[in-house]
Amino acid sequence: MVFLVALIGACLGSFANVAALRSLDGRDWVRAPSACFHCHQKLRFWQNLPIVGYLSHGGKTACCQQRLPARYIFVELAMAALLVLAWQQLPSFAFFGFVPFLVLMVVIFLTDMDDFIIPDWTSLGGLGLGLLLALLNVPGLPDIKTAGLGGAAGFGLIYGINFVYKLWRGHDGMGFGDVKLMAMLGVWLGPVSLLPILFSASLSGAVIGIGAIVFHRLQNSEAAPAQLPFGCFLTPMAVLWLLFAPQALQTLL
């Protein structure tokens, strides 16, 4: 089962890569077949296999021998490991319900890391999917009342913080994509998760941001980042909450 879950995770990682890259490029990620980025030749089945397709040609395209970005295999391996961890940490009835959530978290992380963009189909689509699963009483997910309250709380929390920040500084402190993302997290994880996720994401973002500024100053460089993609901190903290918070709370109680 662990091998099968890892295999499925690698396939989902491959999908997450394609969905993220094509969303940023404005290309169809649902129906368009996979093709080489360089010569646009359609890929054959075995060339499209996750991990194997990358390694079989030494990280190069089979058609024109151009170098492939290493992120392809890294994301596939990371998604495989993440799904195995989720299989071990979550009850089996909850695991299957949260697989789409984990995939969306990876896609959001990649798009926000690349272009500071959280596509609406991931945040609003994930919010709608979470509400639908809650309405269907999928085991392990919040009920519809808790999911609705979590979505409203997530939206209001970030929107309110950004509103106060804009009054204070005169400009937005975060993008509206983060507001929709927090609403989605509230639907899937419930309102009780929001403050811990927000606090831990803010703390880790502050540590990394300050570290980047100090490093660049020591290097006498002016290239320190002016802003950080907050979704890249919210999504890992949401996954950590999903996988470890229930066990930690149970241990404390």
E-strand count: 0
Overall tally of structural domains: 2
- What does the radius of gyration come to? 20 Å
Share of helix, binned: 55-70%
| Low-pLDDT runs | none
Summing up helix and strand content along with how strands pair, one would put the structural category as mainly alpha
- Mean pLDDT comes to 87
Strand content: under 5%
Q: How many DSSP helices? A: 9
Please outline the major beta sheet.
none
What is the straight-line distance between the termini? 32 Å
Shape: globular
Helices and strands, in order, run as: HHHHHHHHH
Your description of this structure?
The chain is 69% helix and 0% strand. Helix 5 (120-135) runs antiparallel to helix 6 and helix 7 runs parallel beside helix 9 (231-252). The longest helix is centred in the middle third of the chain and has 26 residues, at 144-169. The chain has helices at 2-25, 52-55, 71-89, 92-115, 120-135, 144-169, 176-189, 194-218, 231-252. It has two domains: 1-89, no CATH class; 118-244, no CATH class. With 253 residues, the chain is an all-alpha fold. The radius of gyration is 20 Å and the shape is globular.
What is the structure about, briefly put?
This protein has 253 residues and is mostly helical. The protein is built from nine helices and no strands.
